[in-house]
């Protein structure tokens, strides 16, 4: 036995576990690697090696579920979970041509798995719209895919519900995937980010009057493209302190009225406040308008409802952020970039490492959701 090996043995396993907890914040790669170093490292990292899990696609998630079902959740709890319906992107074959995709299977495989140019994506989506047979098959395939994503998500949440602290989901836009979120209590969840056109499994869940909130510890809520379900989240999150809505086009009256009441304290809005209150703890609201909304009337400005909200903000808790500058939009014109799918995973990792993630912006600093 070498001097180095004896030094490793002399270091208490609890110290190694603490060290490993700072290393295992990359979606699971480091945790899996530590198990291969030695039996000692495998045992010392057991509790933290699965604390951060990043899953790409149904097959990847299903494989993890099968593995995790053979593991005691108390021994290796998952605290930070990222799930996207898209498989990990890979380079397209050298022979690939968007014009040659003639079946729903080929089109879906290309859209979900390959790194495509915006022009190639437009070609593939155009084939779905312009060919009735392909369009019909695509709708049928969507229904099956929707069921699979919902099933996988439900199994993931049932296995990790008691330990989750941070959850980020990327769901398909326009598919209105039912989510098991309304059926699963997540007592320790502190941060929730959902990207996509999410719909609950029923239009408006009727929870018992005295039911315990589903997200009693949730403090940071970020919704992108699903702001229409905002009140369902706020009514189940009594500890919410920070709210961000990205790529928001317009808020319905049932949302904007109580929001006005919360930011202004104006008595004119008290009825709406009683019907759908935001938790009193909510002290920061960040809005990032959709690019099209931001370019309202051909100018880089904000539409009337946002301007009215800013004017009503007597508590100074609303912050409007524009899209980040980028080279060109898909149409070729200069324009801002809204929050996208890659941002979700990047910010999920950054928050795990103690950063601000999506909660940072230029002129106002707030305390970020440090999860480590």
Give an overview of the whole structure:
With 372 residues, the chain is α/β, with parallel strands linked by helices. The protein has helices at 3-10, 13-23, 29-37, 39-44, 58-68, 104-113, 118-130, 132-160, 230-234, 253-264, 270-275, 291-294, 304-312, 341-352, and strands spanning 52-56, 80-84, 166-170, 177-179, 191-195, 198-200, 220-224, 242-248, 284-289, 318-320, 324-325, 336-337. The strands form 3 sheets. An 8-stranded parallel β-sheet has the order 1-2-3-5-7-8-9-10, sandwiched between helices. Strands 4-6 form a two-stranded parallel ribbon. The longest helix has 29 residues, at 132-160. The two termini are 35 Å apart. The model is unreliable at 295-299, 325-336 and 362-372 (pLDDT under 50).
Question: What is the strand and helix layout of this fold?
Answer:
Layout: H1 3-10, H2 13-23, H3 29-37, H4 39-44, E1 52-56, H5 58-68, E2 80-84, H6 104-113, H7 118-130, H8 132-160, E3 166-170, E4 177-179, E5 191-195, E6 198-200, E7 220-224, H9 230-234, E8 242-248, H10 253-264, H11 270-275, E9 284-289, H12 291-294, H13 304-312, E10 318-320, E11 324-325, E12 336-337, H14 341-352
Parallel strand pairs: 1-2, 2-3, 3-5, 4-6, 5-7, 7-8, 8-9, 9-10
Antiparallel strand pairs: 11-12
Helix pairs in contact: 5-8, 6-7, 7-8
């Amino acid at each position: 036995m070498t001097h180095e090996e004896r030094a490793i043995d002399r270091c208490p396993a609890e110290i190694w576990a603490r060290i490993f907890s700072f290393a295992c914040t990359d979606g699971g790669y480091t945790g899996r690697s530590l198990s291969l170093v030695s039996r000692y490292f495998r045992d010392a990292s057991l509790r933290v090696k699965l604390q951060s899990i990043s899953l790409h696609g149904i097959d990847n998630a299903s494989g993890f579920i099968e593995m995790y079902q053979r593991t005691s959740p108390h021994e290796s709890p998952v605290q930070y979970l990222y799930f996207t319906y898209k498989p990990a992107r890979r380079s397209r074959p050298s022979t690939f041509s968007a014009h040659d995709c003639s079946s729903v299977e080929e089109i879906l495989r290309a859209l979900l798995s390959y790194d495509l140019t915006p022009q190639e994506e437009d070609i593939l989506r155009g084939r779905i719209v312009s060919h009735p047979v392909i369009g019909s098959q695509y709708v049928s395939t969507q229904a099956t895919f929707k069921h699979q994503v919902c099933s996988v998500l439900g199994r993931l949440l049932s296995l990790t519900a008691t330990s989750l602290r941070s959850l980020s989901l990327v769901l398909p836009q326009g598919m209105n995937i039912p989510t098991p979120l309304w059926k699963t209590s997540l007592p320790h969840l502190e941060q929730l980010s959902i990207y996509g056109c999410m719909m609950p499994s029923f239009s408006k869940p009727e929870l018992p009057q005295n039911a315990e909130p589903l997200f009693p510890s949730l403090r940071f809520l970020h919704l992108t493209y699903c702001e229409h379900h905002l009140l369902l989240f706020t009514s189940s999150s009594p500890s919410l302190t920070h709210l961000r809505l990205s790529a928001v086009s317009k808020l319905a009256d049932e949302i904007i009225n109580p929001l006005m009441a919360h930011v202004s304290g104006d008595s004119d809005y008290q009825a709406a406040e009683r019907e759908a209150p935001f938790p009193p703890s909510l002290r920061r609201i960040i809005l990032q308008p959709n690019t099209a909304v931001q370019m309202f009337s051909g100018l880089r400005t904000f539409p009337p409802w946002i301007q009215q909200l800013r004017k009503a903000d007597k508590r100074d808790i609303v912050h409007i952020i524009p899209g980040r500058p980028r080279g060109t939009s898909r149409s070729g014109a200069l324009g801002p970039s809204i929050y996208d799918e890659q941002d979700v995973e990047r910010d999920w990792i950054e928050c795990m490492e103690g950063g601000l993630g999506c909660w940072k912006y230029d002129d106002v600093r707030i305390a970020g959701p440090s999860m480590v």
